[in-house]
Automatic annotation (TrEMBL):
Domain Peptidase M48: 72-261
Keyword vocabulary terms for this entry: Hydrolase, Metal-binding, Metalloprotease, Protease, Zinc
Source organism of this protein record: Castellaniella daejeonensis
Protein name: M48 family metalloprotease
Cofactor dependency: Zn(2+)
Length: 494
């Protein structure tokens, strides 16, 4: 396999960004006008998206970023379900991703990206509680609080924006280090304590979030329950810093406002998605890094499997099966999976685990199990991922390439399928197409200079006039995008 994964620059990564204060940095300065028309001095949606893509390109390299397709598909679908009922149109599509961190936190980045700590999902006692926090974050995105805060900084000292934009411009030229700009940005935010969300901004996000929850079919009580839990946790940890309450100040006034808006409303007719409990179990396992953590999780799951019923019991058995597989106890994993399947007839996560366990018996068995699973779950990215990997492990790269080409059409916003496709194409000797697939992967993840490099390599390898013409067109289009991004960002460089 050739250097498909070459990158430009060295990334600080999402953990470093968060440690540098990113959730604080992308906040609304105190006193910012609320609920008004968007000011002409605010960042345009195009600039905001460019900044968000740049941060995400670096963040995806960090080991705390959870690139699990199943988890992020669920979270993004939940976010977009809420956003579809926003009281105002959103300038950006919502994309939600998970970060491995046991603290209960969430944060919004420019461009409609929302990060969710694994601890938030694991700590939620219902899907409505998780939806309450996501709806609040979407409220900030809807009100363009992030864009307003950045614009106000650029009109003041501009240290944060100048550092980030300067580094980004260097990265777009294929040189420099975006991470240095991000670190400088975070350091400036740590010094400037006025960059917290204002009370007015927080209440706006609460109110918009409640409306989204109610109309999307979630229980608004979930927001109240989660915020009460967060407020109690912040009191217990007072003085330690961090956590959701430090970036989104909770107050009696805010909680009273939520209570008043919920009071007298008819009870919500909630139909929770059973996948919430399986995703929650998956994140609990990902979050449990040490042997002691896994032992505590095992005890919790055993208690839930014994004391609960329905989908929650099935999710507990699923968690135990996943733990068994991780520890190499395949017999236990299969027994626990069978228990989960006896309680919950079907769930894509159960079939994903079944494919993995079948792979331990042989590549052919995994292919057969994945074929049946794909028929049951044709809209699951997680099942599609397992199906493609099963075909590749069985040496069926021609079938894998056909399957993955269909997957890239079905999910054009999911770059991971392009990378898997490149692997099978390269094994088949279709190097030009492999480079094209990797170019698409890097284009979708925001690494445009690297995407251009792959297209140029494909252009050099190709002997077909029509293919060369197609590649020339793509190279020109990407270079125009690079030029446009530079033009968008240049006015914000100090």
């Amino acid at each position: 396999m050739k250097t498909w994964m070459r990158r430009t620059g060295v990334g600080l990564g999402l953990a470093g960004i968060l440690a540098a204060g990113m959730p604080h940095a992308w906040a609304q300065p105190m006193g910012l006008p609320s609920m008004g028309a968007v000011s002409s001095s605010e960042l345009s949606p195009a600039v905001e998206r460019t900044l968000g893509q740049a941060i995400m390109e670096q963040g995806r390299q960090d080991p705390t970023y959870i690139g699990d397709l199943d988890i992020n598909q669920y979270l993004t679908a939940l976010g977009r379900k809420l956003a579809a009922h926003a009281p105002q149109a959103l300038a950006q599509d919502i994309t939600v991703f998970a970060v491995r961190d046991p603290s209960i936190n969430a944060f919004a980045l420019p461009g409609g990206y929302i990060g969710v700590h694994s601890g938030l999902v694991v700590g939620a006692q219902s899907e409505s509680e998780l939806a309450g926090v996501l709806a609040h974050e979407i409220g900030h995105v809807m009100q363009r609080h992030i864009a307003r805060g950045i614009a106000q900084q650029s009109q003041g000292t501009g240290i944060m924006v100048a550092s980030l934009v300067g580094a980004l411009l260097a990265a777009l030229a294929g040189q420099g280090d975006l991470a240095m700009g991000v670190a400088t940005f975070g350091q400036a935010a740590a010094i400037d304590r006025q960059l917290g969300f204002s009370r007015g901004a927080e209440q706006e996000a609460d109110r918009a979030g409640l409306q989204m929850m109610r109309q999307a079919g979630f229980d608004p009580q979930g927001m109240l329950a989660m915020f009460r839990r967060l407020m109690n946790a912040s009191r217990l940890n007072e003085g330690t810093g961090g956590g959701y309450a430090s970036t989104h100040p909770l107050s009696i006034q805010r909680l009273s406002d939520i209570e008043n808006r919920i009071e007298g409303q008819p009870a919500a007719a909630v139909t929770p998605d059973p996948e919430f409990w399986f995703v929650r179990a998956r994140l609990a396992l990902i979050q449990a890094r040490s042997h002691a953590d896994r032992q505590r999780l095992k005890q919790t799951l055993r208690s839930e499997a014994r004391d609960l019923s329905g989908v929650r019991q099935a999710a507990a058995y699923y968690g135990l099966a996943s733990l068994g597989k991780a520890e190499g106890d395949l017999a236990s994993a299969r027994a626990q999976l069978a228990q989960a399947q006896s309680v919950q007839a079907a769930a894509p996560q159960l079939d994903m685990l079944a494919i993995q366990l079948a792979g331990a018996q042989g590549a052919a068995a995994a292919v057969d199990v994945s074929a049946a699973a794909w028929k049951r779950w044709p809209d699951s990215q997680g099942v599609a991922d397992e199906r493609a990997r099963a075909l590749q492990k069985a040496g069926q790269d021609a079938a894998a390439a056909d399957f993955l080409q269909a997957a890239t059409r079905q999910w054009p916003e999911t770059p991971e399928f392009q990378k898997l496709l490149a692997t099978s194409l390269e094994r088949l000797g279709r190097e030009v197409e492999a480079h094209e697939a990797m170019a698409s992967y890097f284009e979708q993840t925001g690494a445009l200079p690297t995407a251009v490099e792959h297209l140029q390599q494909a252009r050099t390898l190709s002997k077909d006039f029509y293919a060369q013409s197609r590649l020339d067109t793509r190279i020109r289009a990407l270079r125009e995008r690079l030029d446009n991004q530079r033009a968008l960002l240049e006015p914000f460089k100090k």
